[in-house]
Amino acid sequence: MSRTKLGGITLGVAIAACAWCQSSADQNATAPKPDRGAIGEIGAGARSIGSGTARGAGDLAKGAGRGVAYLGTLHPIDASAYVAKGAAGAGKNVAIGTADGAGKVTKGIGRAFKHLF
């Protein structure tokens, strides 16, 4: 065998041995995140309420905008359908955000009382 082929084979075996010796469990393991404190939980709840309200307002505006566009092109049935769809989407997002946020705020208040007593 020539010297270059032997060097290439040796290099390939060395790389394969190094890759085989590494454990993938150590590289992918991450430390679990610590639980949020009382204030962090209340803040996360407020964020959920705000984001739900913002998404709802966006859906309402999008539905109203499409409704106005269809009304301007003399399609009143399509216009009312888009306005209703926007209102339904807004109601859904506000309800989900409020419920999720209220749960987080309640959890944060419970943690605050737990620290007091």
Structural commentary:
- There is one protein chain.
- This protein has 117 residues and is mainly alpha-helical.
- The chain has a domain at 36-116.
- It is 85% helix and 0% strand.
- It has helices at 3-21, 24-28, 38-72, 76-116.
- Helix 3 (38-72) packs antiparallel against helix 4 (76-116).
- It starts with a helix and ends with a helix.
- The relative contact order is 0.15.
- The mean pLDDT is 84.
What is the molecular shape?
flat
Q: With helices defined by DSSP (H or I, 4 residues minimum), what is the helix count?
A: 4
Order of helices and strands: HHHH
Indicate the radius of gyration in whole angstroms.
29 Å
- Mean pLDDT metric: 84
The N- to C-terminal Cα distance equals 80 Å
Quaternary structure classification: single chain
Helix share, percent: over 70%
Q: List low-pLDDT spans.
A: none
Fraction in beta strands? under 5%
Structural class: mainly alpha
Largest sheet: none
How many runs of DSSP E, i.e. beta strands? 0
Keywords:
single chain, 4 helices, 0% strand, flat, mainly alpha, 117 residues
